Amino acid sequence: MSWIAGTVVIWLAAWALNVRVAATGWARTGAGRLFVPLLFGATILVVWEGLVRGLGVAPVILPAPSAIAAKVATSLPVLWVDFAQTFLKGALPGFVIGCGAAVLTAIAIDRSPFLQRGLLPVGNFVAALPIVGLAPILVMWFGFDWQSKAAVVVVMVFFPVLVNMVAGLQASERMQRDLMATWGASYWQALVKLRLPAAMPFLFNGLKIASTLALIGAIVAEFFGSPVYGMGFRISTEVGRLGLDMVWAEIAVAALAGSAFYGLIALIERWVTFWHPSQRH
Q1: What's the fold here for domain 72-279?
Q2: pTM metric for this prediction
Q3: DSSP result, 103-139
């Protein structure tokens, strides 16, 4: 009971501190915006550790964060190989190819009303396909290496970026487009100087959504066939061996990688769309 009582005390103290800090002006500074979520996350880990130890939860059901951290520390070479196979070779190339294709397709749709009426419904249909049904087909088409994982990622990230980019290209005001036409600007000049900058907030919304989908798609694709390494392969094999500490270690690495990738895109968004009201604090 001492573990549970200590956990409750720590939770209440951290909650009060977080509420107090969040209500101050310092919370709106760069350091404050980083401190509040870090404190909240650390509190969750402490509560997790205390409840697992206090309630005597079996490691096969839910290991403690300390056990997961110890497994990560002793399995760094394996985790790095799995990360490189899944993220660097599968998720990242698929993200770049899928998002690039979505942007080019959005420009083509914006240029052609026929494509706007015909291609968007098809894209909506493809986006509705279950990934667990599509992944084994793509694995059979592209083989068991990283190419099939990248193909799954392309399918997953294409439509969210496409929809946001199409909406972004329509975000500029009619008066602004008429003014560009009055000045004799061609379609491509108006696209580069007016419509693409106005579409950047929409594009980055799609990219942030796609950043989380990319890693999920690569991991799911590895469940249906991969070399003898990769995050999805390791999770599926360790579950069968009841190696839940390794499964949670892979989940922790995936969560950190996905969060870092999302944060990188958000940072680039701040640099590119510094003029947008959403970036003003």
Answers
A1: MetI-like fold (1.10.3720)
A2: 0.83
A3: HHHHHHHHH-HHHHHHHHHHHHHHHTS-HHHHHHHHH
